[in-house]
Every structure is written in structure tokens, then in C-alpha cells.
Amino acid sequence: MSKIDKIFNSFVSHGLFKDKRVLQSNYLPENIAHRDEQVEAVASILAPSLRGEKISNLFIYGKTGTGKTLSVQHVGGKILEKLKEIEQESVQFVYINCKLKKVADTEYRILAEIIRELGGTIPATGLPTDEVYTRFVDLVDKKKQIIILVLDEIDQAVKKIGDGFIYTLTRLNSELKNAQINIIGISNSLTLMDNLDPRVRSSLGEEELVFSPYNALQLQDILRERAESAFKDGVLEEGAISKCAAYAAREHGDARRALDLLRVAGELAEREQSERVVLKHIDMAKEKIERDKMLDIIEGEPRQFQIVLFSIMRLNEKNKGAEISTGEVYNTYKEICEKTKNEILTQRRVSDIVSEFDMLGIINAPVISKGRQGRTREIKLALPSTIGEKAKEILDKALCL
Ligand code: ADP
Ligand code: MG
Q1: Separation of 339 CA from ligand 1 center, angstroms?
Q2: Ligand 1 and 281: CB distance under 6 A
Q3: pTM of the predicted structure, to 2 decimals
Q4: Which ligand lies nearest the alpha carbon of 259?
């Protein structure tokens, strides 16, 4: 038997998962634990639409992984089932995730996506925004109907393009003769509402619903149920679930993080050809997830940030881990900019970038007073040694060094 066959076979016969998809974040569980109150509230708010009656706009907020998307999609699915059952066709449920790049970069794109979801067509670019609105109105106003428009991660869209589009969408109802548009805005940011235009706030926030973080015990319930269909019997060591739950609870009660931990732990255990997922694998999973997240940040930073980080990494190597001053960083930064033909920012801007890295935990850079000579920072790289190499690779590639 070839080596590859051996590897493959060990996965086929010793696999620990029964159905790994159950642990992925787009899987829709039938049962939503510890969210009865919220699910019922959403259902009550949407229910009048079944009789063709007006419903309120709804604003939902809560930290990531608190079950917002899941709960709204769940109720949406149930409404569609009910509509079928009573042979009603006058409600449309449209779900848009504003975080997707292709969706929320511009107002045009959001509208185009909504139009496409409603079965209309629209060129990818090129029309004036007014014209897109007109087409939207024409499309929905053809018949008497209620559009329930879910704008998930609406905070992302507001961050990029402001809140004007929400205002326009809520105002459209006065132009519509037959149809009615209702918005469910979902936000991971708890402070979004405070920063909206008061008119947007009052129309979007006709109803508000908070999703608070899960505690460790609630996370255990959620994990246990998913683990039962995801893993083969007896594969999880006693305590594995409570360990995942405890880690995720520490990180603001994020169910997504808890599920990721369990899934990655299972994958690592399989890779080791272990017969069980033991507590050690949860720790390994935690480290891997944190590492991947950090690398994602580094990869996604703008060019200038990458050059600054690269300078710090190079100095770190040169100084063998001793503290680096802001001045040293700036000099190296300038050299690299020249070499890579990038614009050179002011020292002030580079300092700002350094302090952002500090906040992200990529470096430690306390400000040190130097008396009359002002202040500087003593910079130390804080990347775990396991990701240093990989981070360097990413930067080499991004900066074409
Ligand atoms: P949010 O939209 O608040 O960020 P999600 O609804 O996407 O969170 O939930 C994150 C993950 O956790 C998803 O995989 C979801 O299926 C799962 N999840 C969240 N809450 C529950 C719950 N109460 N029961 C089962 N799974 C849950
Ligand atoms: Mg969500």
C-alpha cells in the first residue's frame, strides 16, 4: 500500500467525525437553545405580515456569535413555510449580508443585490443611483406585497458608506402604492445606533432586540447538541465540551468560536491519527485559531502598515529581540519604502501605525518619557514564535521583496 493510500485509509476508517458540516457556521440547527425569548419576539413582530398587515422595522444587536443571524434566518424560514401552507404569496423574505465585499462597498451594490434577490436584473455598474432606486420601486410595487428585508451586519455597511441608504430605504414606503418594505437591521456593533442619524434611528429602531452573550453553561448545551451529530459516539474525551465552552465564554460568549474550537480540535486529532479528541487538542485548536486570526490581520492590512510591520520584524532580528525605538523603525521604514518604491509617510503617521499594532497585540510598545527629549516607544515584537516565519512570508510576498 502506498503511503498516500495509508494516510487516506486511516481517515476513511478511523475518522472521528460523523458529519463535520454540523460544526460549520452556515449549518442551520433545528433547535436553537437559550434563545426562545428572542426567537419568539422576532416571530411576533413579523407575524402580522401573514395577514398582509403592516409590521414594524426591527433593529437587532449583540456581539458576534450570539445567534442573531441564526435566529432571524430560522424565523424567516418558518414564515416561508407558513406562507406556503396558507397559500399566500404576498410576503417576500430577502436576506442580505452586508459584510460581503461585493455587497456593501457602495449603495449601488447593496441595492443591486436586493434587486437580484427579488428576481430582478441590474447591470453590475453604470446606472445613476437614482435610477437604481426607481427600478427597485418599479420592481416591488408591481403588486401588493410585503418585503421583509434583512440587512445583516449592517454596521459594516454603515462603516463603509454611511447611513444614508437606510434612510432612503425607509423613506421609500411613501413612494410605494402597493408594496411595503420592512427592514430588519442586524448589527454586531453595540454602539451603532448611537451613531446613526436621529431620523434613521427612529425609523429603523421601531422595535429593538438585544442578544446578550452566552455563558459557559449555555455554550455547553449548544455544543453538546451539535457534537452529538458531528462526532462518532465516544470520540470526545469527558470535559472536552466544557473546555471549549469555557474558552469561548471567556471571549464574550461567542458560540461561533466555541464551535470552531471543537471542529478544529477534531481535525487536529484526526491529523494525529488519534482515536479520540482529548483536552490537549482543544488547546492546540485554540492556538491554531488565534494564530490564523493574527495572520489574517497581517495579510489584510494596507500596504503602509505592512511596511511598518516588516521594518519592526527586520529590526527585531537585527537587535536579537532587544527593544526598538520609534526612530529606528522610521529609518528602516524609509529605506524599505525607497527600495519598494512606495510613498513615504511622515514620522507622525508611522507612530500612529505603531500604536495601532500595539492595540492589536502584534507588538508591545509602551511610551517612555525621555525627559526633555520628549517621548519615544520601546517596541517589542509580540508575535508568537510559531507565526513569525509565516508572517514574514506573507509580508515578503505582499511587498514583493
Ligand atoms: P451572530 O449572527 O450573532 O454573529 P450566529 O447566529 O451566526 O451569530 O451564530 C454563530 C454560530 O453559532 C452559528 O454556527 C450558529 O449556528 C451557532 N449558534 C449560535 N447560537 C446558537 C444556539 N442557540 N443553538 C445552536 N447553535 C447556535
Ligand atoms: Mg451574524
Answers
A1: 47
A2: no
A3: 0.84
A4: 1
Note the pLDDT tens digit of each residue in 140-185: 999 999 999 999 999 999 988 999 999 999 999 999 999 999 999 9
Whole-number Å distance, alpha carbon 70 to ligand 1 midpoint, is 5
Cell of 266: 477534531
Q: What are the pLDDT digits (tens) for 8-18?
A: 765 665 689 98
All three cell numbers of 317: 532580528
Proximal ligand: closest to the CA of 221: 1
Ligand 2 centroid, distance to 206 Cα (angstroms)? 21
Q: How far apart are CA 138 and CA 29, in angstroms?
A: 37
Q: Are 95 and 76 in contact (CB under 8 A)?
A: yes
Closest atom of ligand 1 relative to the 62 alpha carbon: 3
Q: How far is the CA of 103 from the centre of ligand 2 (A)?
A: 15
Q: Please work out whether the CB of residue 22 comes within 6 Å of at least one atom of ligand 1.
A: no
Give the atom of ligand 1 at the shortest distance from the alpha carbon of 225.
Answer: 25
**CA-nearest residue, atom 1 of ligand 1:** 65
**Ligand 1: centre distance to CA 278 (Å):** 24
Residue 5 has pLDDT above 80, yes or no: no
Q: Which bound ligand lies closest to the C-alpha atom of 71?
A: 1
Closest CA to 261 of 59, 4, 25, 15: 25
Total length of the chain: 401
363 in Cβ contact with 312 (< 8 Å): yes
